[in-house]
Task: structure prediction
Amino acid sequence: MNVTRLQPGRHLSPPPTPLRHKGLKKGVYVIPSLFTAMNFFGGFYSLMATMSGFRLLGIDASQVQQATERFDYAAIAIGLAFVCDTLDGRIARMTRSTTEIGIQLDSLADIVSFGLAPAVLAYAWGYGTALQDWGNTRQLAWFLSFMFVICGGFRLARFNVQAIRPRPLAEGTPKVDKKSFVGLPIPVAGCLIAAIVHFAPTPIKYVPHHELVGISMMILVAFLSVLMVSTLRFTSFKSVGTGRRQSARIAIGMIAITGLIYLYSQWVLLVLAIAYVAHGLLSRGLTSLSRRSDKSGEPQET
Result:
């Protein structure tokens, strides 16, 4: 019987590595893109429903009920797009399938679903029709909707640049913090407008004191535009639920919120959107007060 002897310095070849499931690995990258596509579809459907409702308002007053349903559908579509936008980012981080193309595609979907769709909805449902007899006010309303879109686009562009280059680009540029966003996120700004429409889908033109309500809506859109390009800090919630200890509590909390939204969607969605915007303003105010108190407590040189 011949026995093969190993010569000094020679080693046995390592066992062959098992074949990886390349199809499964590619499928992991496809899942976030599917949610991004659904985000796109939500924004597109919202635009089509808003245009349909605006067309019905131009026929006669008998079509108000159908127009109200169209505007409500448009607002709900923006809310569903927000759910898809949240899921695609979280799934991409959990599966470590984040790509540069996915980030840019997500930003394009956001500008459609949370920039263009809410701006057109606010105009068609709100101040665009309620103030159409006020001379040049209608042109101002058109301009405010455009500014909402462009400020949202600037907010997304700034976020992408900061995400790619974490270091400050210039002196005074805020640093990137994963726990917070710089400026109001455009999905929240768009969802606040959608929540208001879902709370009262009847066109402003057919509600009491519609001029005052239309002007208030214009002020709100302008205020949200300023918040998006501001340097205020808003909690990102990206790290929520990542720890094992928090998973059970987060799951219970999400089930409770989902049940409340199912039962009282008009009130719960509006309160959640307002609370998120208000917490950024309150945190900035509390931070300013604490800094003033610290400065006043320091001993002054004589």
Observations:
- The chain is about 70% helix and 0% strand.
- The mean pLDDT is 81.
- The beta strands are 180-182, 233-235.
